[in-house]
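Closing statement on the adenosine-5'-triphosphate sub-project.
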Amino acid sequence: MISVKNLSKSFGHFSAVEDLNFDVKPGDIVGFLGPNGAGKSTTMKMLTGFLQPTHGSIEIFDMSIAQHTKDIQERIGYLPEGAPAYGDMTTYQFLKFIAEVRGFRGKDKEQRIRNVIEKIELQDVVNRPIENLSKGFKRRVGLAQALIHDPDILILDEPTDGLDPNQKHQVRELITQLAQDKIVIISTHILEEVTAVCNRVMIIAKGKLLFDDTPLRLQQRSRYYQAVTIHLSYLADISGLAELEGVAEMEVEQKTGHVTLFPEPGQHILHEVTAHVQRAKLPVDTLFIEQGRLDQVFRDLTTEVA
Ligand SMILES: Nc1ncnc2c1ncn2[C@@H]1O[C@H](COP(=O)(O)OP(=O)(O)OP(=O)(O)O)[C@@H](O)[C@H]1O
């Protein structure tokens, strides 16, 4: 359990994080979202004990991080922003070094190194210097070092940054698997990652917490949530769609020709729309219910505070 109270961090007169309050429990996979400079990395550094807060407190497993930094760090796996250091070491040498720093010796150490190499699929780069690896592999080596001691808490700063789509998918699967009995906090700029991986979203901007709830609740904030979008294969009279019961508004996107019908609050309009399409014999080639556009909600929330 992580308990954060009135957490603030200033650099000189500049306030990077302001009065954050939240709890995180095992099983939570928190997506920490925010524009550049929002304070995500600063918060993560405070959660991992690498940066002292200016105000407020962090308790992890009922211990204050200020007083029990080392005990808590033993239970945290941290992937910092960017790539791991020590580029002249090979992947194996680096993981061995980290395992030793974590206090493992002998067979246990070797077994742990083997396990993470397998889990993160690093077999092909085991003996290559880290500085020669692609950005994606560097990121994966970083992830491996965060997992070597099987921590209770994983704090991952942009874990899929620089990965190709297949690797992104693989890392997301891995995070989902790992999260069953752990606390996972990931920071990301990728909105789709939040719905793919997280069961909780926290959005910060200018150091302030603006949203803390499930991805579904975030989607529900979108004006597109449960709207019905259609596309016609050729021009036809669509005026009847706007008159349907439960439809509050109709919008036509000029560039793509997509027609979106927005429901009155709490209304489900799919049935009405499909019935009308059949009655009026509209030449529809696409019809779907919108899940909510996260990019629009993100923009609305974060530009409000800006
Ligand atoms: N050591 C420091 N000294 C002064 N200012 C700092 C320091 N570290 C961070 N900041 C500032 O604090 C603010 C928050 O930075 P932080 O790195 O936490 O943002 P972020 O949300 O992680 O951004 P990004 O998504 O770009 O990584 C930024 O304006 C940054 O310039």
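The longest helix spans residues 106-119. With this model delivered, the sub-project is considered complete and its resources will be redirected to Aim 3.
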